[in-house]
Every structure is written in C-alpha cells, then in structure tokens.
Predict the 3D structure of the following.
Amino acid sequence: MVSLGTIEGFDYSAVTAIHKRTDKDAYLIGTNGNGLFTLVISEEGNALKRLNDNEELEYLNVQSIFGDSDNNCWISTNESGVLRLRLSEEDGSPESIRFFNKDSGLPGNNAKLVFQDVEGNFWIGLFGDGLSMLPTLAFTFYAPGLTPGDNNILYINKIADDYFLGTPTGYYLFNLENNK
C-alpha cells in the first residue's frame, strides 16, 4: 500500500471513523475525543472543517458512523449515546441534530454501532448494555420540567421550529431536533 498524502488538522486526535457522504468527494470523520470533522477533497486542495458550531459536537468520542436511507448520519459514541446528524448538501454544516441516550430511553450511553434493517428499524449495538432496537414509528418521551406538575402538558402548538408547550405553571418552547 502506498500513501498518497497526509491530511493534517486533527490536533493529535485518533481518527476512529470515516464515512463517505453522498457528495462526490466529501467525508464525515469522527475522532476519539475531538468531535466531528468534514473533509472535501478537490483538485484545488483539501478542505477540512471541524463541526464545532454546536458545543455538544466538540468533544465527542466517536466509535462509528452509519449512513441511513434518508441521508442521515448515525454517530455511535462513548459516553454520549447515539447522535443522528443531517448535514447540509450545500456547505456540510449541521441541519439537524438529535441525541439518543439514557435520557431518551437507551439503556446506556456507550454505543459501538448502528444498523438499519430493510424494514427501517435502527439497531444499536451498545458496549456492556446489549442491543437496542428503535422502530421507525417509536414513541419518544420528553419531560421539559423537573416536577410532575411542570410536565402536565395542557396545550401544544407549533411555532416556527419550536413547539409551544403549555402547563399549569407556565410554558416551554421546545425544539424537537435539539431535544431542548
């Protein structure tokens, strides 16, 4: 095997996963503790960019990257569960981010891999916590408040990208993509 060159800029972090995007020569690259990068290879030169617009992405310990049938990237991590990420076709920036972890029902936060079967179910292989299956029509539980009274949702309406959740004690603006 002959090396054709070296791509620098990973700050001495181990590269743990490489996923070719649907773009001609574009890649999503995961590292061990230094988050995610996009790489575009062209005749004009290589363009390596760290995805650090969102602080949740900065220090991910990536185990694997899987591309699903809808062009989402599923990133398995140590300590952060699984991340479903959709990147913009234009500039490779994150369009949507959603974490699946213990807070959202996964048995553990150390995921090794994700696989999608022909029925559209997502299988998540966990390190030490077995196997989880996420059906495509799964219910997801969200608890915006800290007490049962705060989680008594009496009204729901969509406002722009957020959901307005009315409770007896006030309201929440909830962003489903960011789970916040």
The longest strand covers residues 36-42.
